[in-house]
Design brief:
Low-confidence stretches: 1-15
Largest sheet: 8 strands, mixed
Shape: globular
Strand content: 25-35%
Structural class: alpha+beta
Number of helices: 3
Number of strands: 8
Length: 170
């Protein structure tokens, strides 16, 4: 499930692009506070904001890499997150999902940077494999701008129109 990347006015303090510190970890390697921040952001975006009752803790987190984008500074905060499922966990290909930026950091290009970092990590781990996403259909143009191509007919998942998209392998 993808979402919450609508353009919104940038925060007043966002005159310049925000530089993030990327954290790339398996579930068991995340500290309790890091895991809490990721799960809280996922719940805020996918359950509360999108008014969607679904089982976010779907069992796939154990066979996934988690990419967290932290702000720099005295008190870092989570600004962006996605997870990458290993090939064979859900699809034959590695799969990027749960893509989000938290509300104070929207509208300043973080989603594009987050996806670029996620794609880069996939290419390092599985260079020859295509990458699959189950994109919310309203974000199809955004993912197409990153070279993903539609690979399925539209379908409904958790009451939201989706479409599968693939990024060709290298």
């Amino acid at each position: 499930m993808f979402g919450a990347m609508n353009a919104a006015p940038p925060p007043a303090s966002a005159a310049a692009p925000i530089e993030l510190r990327w954290q790339w970890a398996r579930l068991q390697d995340l500290a309790a506070t890091e895991l809490y921040a990721a799960l809280a952001a996922r719940q805020q975006v996918f359950t509360v904001e999108q008014h969607c009752a679904f089982q976010d803790a779907d069992g796939h987190d154990f066979r996934a890499w988690h990419l967290l984008g932290w702000t720099r500074g005295r008190v870092p905060s989570l600004a962006a997150y996605l997870r990458i499922l290993d090939p064979g966990a859900k699809y034959a290909e590695p799969s990027i999902g749960r893509v989000l930026t938290v509300p104070p950091f929207r509208g300043i290009g973080l989603a594009r940077g987050l996806m670029a970092e996620g794609i880069r990590r996939c290419r390092e781990a599985w260079p020859a494999k295509p990458i699959r996403i189950a994109a919310q259909q309203r974000l199809e143009a955004f993912y197409a701008s990153l070279a993903f191509q539609v690979a399925s007919a539209p379908y409904i998942e958790d009451d939201i129109p989706h479409v599968d998209m693939l990024l060709a392998g290298q």
